[in-house]
Amino acid sequence: MRLFSNARRASDLGPLPLERLARTSQPTGWTDSPAVAPSLAPAAEGFAESARFYEELYDGLRDGEVIEADPNPRLDDPVAMARELRGGGYFLNATAIGICRADAAIWYPDATAMQGHCVVIAVEWGTPIDVDNLATAWLSPNEGTPAQIRAAQIAVILAGYIRAMGRPARAHLRTGSDIDVERAAILSGIAMRDANGTLTHPLMGTRFALAALTTDVELATDLPLDAQRARGG
Which 3 state secondary structure label does DSSP give 28? Predict the structure, then answer.
């Protein structure tokens, strides 16, 4: 159980006290080896099969036309833009948001039009399903799917918002991505690898879904999590 009040927190800080977590300039276990795109497993039966429709819908909205807009001074303020994107993401029910430079190591080898900054969105899974719930067989293999859909939705909306301001932005989702979102999560301080190599977070554990967006808008960045101090090392 997490005991933390966010009643008086600024909207761009989000529901979790991420600012209290130990940080480091050198992420644990980081590698510059080429990123390898994972194979997308076929949709399982039950809820995931139904949810795939929405994932494919958002996949078709990852990128789009950049709107010709009047110059916006906020786009030239990295801190203000970072706060604006965080606030929007948290309004849309993101659990944690981190920002990093889009290091070359996060891009897949066949990626085109690489962009300079990356915003990573994490959405925590919901409460575990009761074992005696009649829907357990339908939902339990896919507990993380609703969070995955919400993360994709947030990434698509924020990327579209940036394009509406006149700057390019592209969302990166489980079903379609030009980057290794897990590597971006490590660089942006959203996650770290545990001793077994599993992606984890000090406050969410392993029950969270990820999506991201990249853009050429300059944004204030976060440091990676200090995995050694988080483990009590």
Answer: coil
Determine the Cα–Cα distance for residues 171 and 48; give it in Å rounded to an integer: 21
Indicate yes or no: pTM above 0.85: yes
Quote the CA–CA distance of 170 and 83 in Å, as a whole number: 19
Q: Which pair of tokens denotes residue 67?
A: 């709107």
Residue 26 lies in a domain: no
Q: Is residue 48 part of a domain?
A: yes
Residue 199: what are its φ and ψ, rounded to 5°? -70, 130
Domain boundaries, position 100: 44-230
CA–CA separation, 155 vs 175, rounded Å?
13
Whether 12 maps to a domain, the answer reads: no
Structure tokens at 167: 């700057």
Number of helices (H), then strands (E), belonging to the chain: the values are: 6, 6
Predicted local confidence at residue 221, as pLDDT: 96
Q: Which two tokens stand for residue 54?
A: 């929405």
The number of domains in the chain is: 1
pLDDT tens figures, 193-233: 888 888 999 999 999 999 999 999 999 999 999 877 765 44
Q: What is the mean pLDDT of the chain?
A: 86
